[in-house]
Design brief:
Layout: H1 2-13, H2 20-86, H3 89-119
Helix pairs in contact: 2-3
């Protein structure tokens, strides 16, 4: 019975364990596979973000161009509208330039405060 019990013990233990060298090689191969998968995933994510950025930049440029054209037309319309009330085109143009600069300063200060809040700059 001793021989049978010894055989049963060996069967329960399974095949002999691998060497440390083989385990390390498998670990390194597994790490390489994981690194390659991570790099592939990062490249895919980068391409996806680049595509979204290109689209956003294109539509942003179109929107900015439309905004500039609209703002220019608004200034011209304002000059024409107030010219009879202020005594001519020159005073009306100067008034509209002053209004445009005042709006630019106000919006610039608001943008600066928004960026400071975003980056957490207290000073």
């Amino acid at each position: 019975m001793d021989d049978e019990e010894a055989g049963a013990d060996n069967a329960r233990k399974g095949p002999p364990p691998d060497t440390i060298h083989a385990s390390v090689e498998r670990l390194i191969a597994s790490g390489k596979d994981l690194a390659e998968a991570e790099i592939s995933w990062a490249k895919l994510k980068g391409r996806s973000l680049a595509s979204l950025l290109r689209k956003g930049l294109f539509f942003g440029i179109l929107a900015t161009t439309g905004l500039m054209v609209g703002f220019s037309l608004l200034l011209v319309a304002g000059i024409v509208a107030i010219a009879p009330h202020v005594g001519g085109l020159l005073p009306a143009t100067l008034i509209m330039i002053g209004i445009a600069f005042a709006l630019a300063i106000i919006f610039g200060l608001l943008a600066r405060n928004a960026f400071r809040d975003m980056i957490g700059d207290d000073g």
